[in-house]
């Protein structure tokens, strides 16, 4: 049993913390939403009065927060521990830190883990400002994966800290991959999700063209799923109802993976592309299409629901 401080009990963090409790760990929790803390306390966690209190005495400190600015504030406190430049995601305040920075409150041997999806630059800056081993460990698998304990963790940071953290992450997920040094987990996440967006839009375009050509969804699926067009967006998450019975297309595009979260991740990929000079024209086009989809009412829809916009106006 390990002592774990967990901060950020939203859609993802709450079920992740519950899985740590189920695995027999001693978990102290904090969130700005008191009701989220109460719900976890009822499940057996210790309620902390501030994020720093959750970290005190912990062997592992885990955060699951919305964006880079929250991660910066929660880990470094309002003083920022003398950190240097601020990535564009890191600007502004927008949240209350809930007390002193987590990094200062955690004991010197505690393993520090941020599971939020944030920009690579802020992840690296926070890890450097903390000044001791810290892991960026974003996830894929969504709320269902968080509840089922089947998340994939992609982890950046020192190998020894990764080795210590691996069993804790394994209590919340099925796959844990060490991707490299600080920021490598976030880098893997934005690259993977940019690829996913591009493949989903490509799959949607193929179905829209098939419809115009009088080719049935099932016929395209039967051919492409067994030939060179095969991809996850087609065979696991098919954007038209029928061929894959449990895909969101079969439930009026209820998420799943919300289009708004895909747009967030695409924005992070384009921030990284700008900062590194990488050419990602399809990533940029995908972000523009998802922004249009959100503006046109796609906010509450699964990201595969973008097929409706492509079908109606060709995405132009
Ligand atoms: P959420 O908005 O439901 O939860 C975030 C929680 O953080 C909220 O409960 C909020 O009160 C809390 N919080 C914010 N600032 C805080 C502070 N200063 N101190 C303490 N608590 C604070 O978000 P979510 O859906 O749980 O997502 C969390 C992260 O996981 C995001 O970075 C998101 O991109 C990523 N992610 C989400 C999904 C998904 O399907 N929801 C999938 C993969 C990754």
TrEMBL record:
It catalyses: 3-hydroxy-2-methylpropanoate + NAD(+) = 2-methyl-3-oxopropanoate + NADH + H(+). Keywords: Branched-chain amino acid catabolism, NAD, Oxidoreductase. Coiled coil: none annotated. One of its GO terms (biological process) is branched-chain amino acid catabolic process. Its EC number is 1.1.1.31. Pathway: Amino-acid degradation; L-valine degradation. InterPro entries: 3-OH-isobutyrate_DH-rel_CS, 6-PGluconate_DH-like_C_sf, 6PGD_dom2, 6PGDH_NADP-bd, HIBADH, HIBADH-like_NADP-bd, HIBADH-related, NAD(P)-bd_dom_sf. Pfam families: NAD_binding_11, NAD_binding_2. Residues 3-80, 100-180 form the 6-phosphogluconate dehydrogenase NADP-binding domain. The active site is at residue 189. SUPFAM superfamilies: 6-phosphogluconate dehydrogenase C-terminal domain-like, NAD(P)-binding Rossmann-fold domains. Residues 183-309 form the 3-hydroxyisobutyrate dehydrogenase-like NAD-binding domain. One of its GO terms (molecular function) is NAD binding. PROSITE patterns: 3_HYDROXYISOBUT_DH (PS00895). Belongs to the HIBADH-related family. This is 3-hydroxyisobutyrate dehydrogenase. It comes from Roseomonas acroporae.
């Amino acid at each position: 049993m390990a002592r774990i401080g967990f901060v950020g009990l939203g859609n993802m963090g709450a079920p992740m913390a519950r899985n740590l409790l189920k695995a027999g760990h001693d978990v102290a929790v904090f969130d700005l939403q008191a009701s989220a803390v109460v719900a976890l306390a009822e499940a057996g966690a210790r309620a902390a009065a501030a994020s720093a209190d959750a970290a005190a005495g912990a062997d592992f400190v885990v955060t699951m927060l919305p964006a880079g600015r929250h991660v910066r504030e929660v880990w470094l406190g309002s003083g920022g521990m003398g950190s240097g430049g601020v990535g564009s995601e890191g600007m502004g305040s927008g949240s209350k830190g809930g007390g002193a920075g987590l990094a200062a409150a955690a004991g010197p041997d505690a393993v520090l883990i941020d599971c939020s999806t944030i920009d690579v630059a802020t992840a690296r800056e926070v890890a450097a400002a903390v000044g001791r081993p810290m892991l960026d460990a974003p996830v894929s698998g969504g709320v269902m994966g968080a509840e089922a304990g089947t998340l994939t963790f992609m982890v950046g940071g020192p190998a020894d800290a990764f080795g210590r953290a691996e069993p804790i992450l394994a209590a919340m997920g099925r796959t844990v991959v060490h991707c490299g040094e600080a920021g490598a987990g976030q880098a893997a996440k934005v690259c993977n999700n940019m690829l996913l967006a591009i493949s989903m839009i490509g799959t949607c375009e193929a179905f829209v063209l098939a419809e115009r050509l009088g080719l049935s969804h099932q016929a395209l699926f039967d051919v492409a799923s067994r030939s060179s067009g095969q991809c996850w967006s087609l065979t696991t998450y098919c954007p038209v109802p029928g061929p894959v019975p449990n895909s969101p297309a079969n439930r009026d595009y209820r998420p799943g993976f919300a289009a708004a979260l895909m747009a967030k991740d695409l924005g992070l990929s384009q921030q990284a592309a700008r900062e590194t000079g990488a050419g990602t024209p399809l990533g940029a086009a995908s972000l523009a299409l998802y922004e249009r989809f959100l503006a046109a009412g796609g906010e509450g829809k699964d990201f595969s629901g973008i097929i409706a916009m492509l079908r109606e106006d060709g995405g132009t």
